[in-house]
Design a protein that fits this description.
Elements (H helix, E strand, L loop, with lengths): L1 E13 L4 E3 L4 E2 L3 E18 L6 E4 L2 E2 L2 H18 L4 E8 L10 H15 L6 H11 L3 H4 L4 E4 L12 E5 L7 E6 L9 H11 L3 H21 L2 H20 L10 H15 L4 E4 L6 E5 L1 H11 L7 E5 L6 E8 L5 E3 L1
Helix pairs in contact: 1-2, 2-3, 6-7
Bound molecules: ligand DP6.
Ligand DP6 binds next to helix 5.
C-alpha cells in the first residue's frame, strides 16, 4: 500500500552523544527533546515488484548514492520484518529549507519508519516504531512522539528497551524556540562520526555518560513543574557539556563558527538584562534560543540586529508522527484511498 507519513523535527534539551552499541544504534545515554511543529518531513513509500533497487527522491531530486544506501539499509530491516523482497520508491520532502543547516535525519527517519512499515503491511505499536526509527537515526526515535519526549538508553542488548516515551504532549507548555541560521555550509563531520570519535578518544567521555543521569532527572522535573529557569539552565549545561566533550576528542571536533560564538554572548547578554533566554546547539553552527512566548519578539528584535544571521525560524511544540495518506489494495482486493 502506498503510504504517506509526516514527522516533525525535534531538538534535544538533554543531548544524546555516544552509542553503547553502534551496530544496533543504541545510545549510551538517555536524552530529552522537544518536537517542533513548524519543521517537518513528509515521506511517501511504495514497494513495487517493478523496481530493481530502492529509489530515494529527496526534495524532488534523486538523492546521492550515500543517502540512498542509508535509506536502503533501513528498508532492509522493514523487508526482513515484513517478509517481503520488493524494493521501494521513496519520496521525501522537508518543509524547512534544505541547506539551512538543520538536521533532517530525525524527522526524516521517523517519517520513513512510519510510512515504510505501513506500506509493507506491518502494524507496529508506537514503541516498536520508535525502536525502528532509532535504527535509522537515534534522534528519530524521539520524533515518533509529540511534545516533550524522553529517549531511554535502555539496558537490554537487543535494544528493545532503547525507545522514546512521551513525557508530556505538545499542549503541556507553550514554549518557543528561535532557530538562528548562521551558516548553510555542510558540516565538517556528521553526528554519527562525531560521536563515535568522541567516545573512542575523549578522556571525558565516561564522565559525560555518568553525569547524564542527573541531567535527565533535573530536566524531567523542570518540565513537569514548568520551571523555565531550570529547563534553560539544564539545557545549556547539557549543550555546552556536549560541545566541550566534542572539543576534547582527538582530533578535536568544533561545530561553531564566529557568529555562533557572538550569538552565545548575545543570549547571555539578554539574560544579564533580565530577559529569560537560553540556548542550545546541535552538531552544527546554528543557535536555538529557548524562550517563553511573551519574550520571543523582544529576543528576536535584539538578536536580528547582529549581522550575518541568514534566517530566523520561530518554532513551538508540535505533534508526533502520523499517516496522512494511504492508497492501495487491502486484503480483500478493494482499492482504498483515505
Ligand atoms: C547533537 O541522531 O543524528 O543532535 O543516531 O548517529 O544518526 P545517529 O545520530 P543523530 O545525533 C543527534 C545528535 C544531536 C543531539 C540530539 O539530538 O540528542
Amino acid at each position: 500500500m502506498k503510504t504517506t507519513a509526516l514527522a516533525h523535527a525535534n531538538i534535544a534539551l538533554v543531548k544524546y552523544w555516544g552509542k553503547r552499541d553502534p551496530a544496533l544504534n543504541l545510545p549510551a545515554t538517555g536524552s530529552i527533546s522537544l518536537t517542533l511543529k513548524e519543521l517537518f518531513t513528509r515521506t511517501t513509500v511504495e514497494f513495487s515488484a517493478d523496481l530493481a533497487q530502492d529509489e530515494l527522491i529527496l526534495n524532488g531530486e534523486r538523492a546521492n548514492p550515500r543517502d540512498e544506501q542509508r535509506a536502503g539499509k533501513f528498508l532492509d530491516l522493514i523487508r526482513a520484518q515484513a517478509g517481503i523482497a520488493a524494493f521501494a520508491r521513496v519520496a521525501s520532502e522537508n518543509n524547512f529549507p534544505t541547506g539551512a543547516g538543520l538536521a533532517s535525519s530525525a524527522s526524516g527517519f521517523a517519517a520513513l519508519a512510519l510510512a515504510a512499515a505501513h506500506a509493507a503491511g506491518l502494524s507496529l505499536s508506537p514503541d516498536q516504531l520508535s525502536e525502528l526509527a532509532r535504527r535509522g537515526s537515534g534522534s528519530a526515535a524521539r520524533s515518533i512522539f509529540g511534545g516533550f519526549v524522553e529517549m531511554k538508553a535502555g539496558a537490554l542488548p537487543d535494544g528493545s528497551d532503547a525507545v522514546a516515551v512521551q513525557l508530556h504532549d505538545e499542549t503541556w507548555w507553550p514554549l518557543e524556540m528561535l532557530i538562528l541560521i548562521t551558516s548553510a555550509a555542510e558540516k565538517e563531520i556528521g553526528s554519527t562520526a562525531g560521536m563515535n570519535r568522541t567516545a573512542q578518544t575523549s578522556p571525558y567521555y565516561p564522565a559525560w555518560v555518568a553525569s547524564s543521569v542527573e541531567d535527565l532527572a533535573a530536566m524531567r522535573d523542570a518540565i513537569s513543574r514548568r520551571d523555565f529557569q531550570q529547563l534553560g539552565e539544564i539545557a545549556e549545561f547539557s549543550c555546552f557539556k556536549m560541545h566541550g566533550l566534542a572539543l576534547s576528542a582527538r582530533p578535536a571536533i568544533l561545530y561553531w563558527n564566529p557568529l555562533t560564538v557572538e550569538l552565545i554572548h548575545a543570549v547571555r547578554g539578554l539574560r544579564q538584562k533580565g530577559i529569560p533566554a537560553y540556548l542550545t546547539i546541535d552538531a552544527g553552527p546554528q543557535i536555538k534560543v529557548i524562550c517563553l512566548p511573551e519574550y520571543s519578539e523582544q529576543i528576536r528584535a535584539t538578536l536580528e540586529q547582529i549581522s550575518g544571521i541568514r534566517k530566523i525560524i520561530k518554532t513551538s511544540p508540535g505533534p508526533g508522527a502520523g499517516i496522512v495518506e494511504e492508497e492501495g489494495e487491502r486484503g480483500n482486493g478493494e482499492p482504498e484511498k483515505r
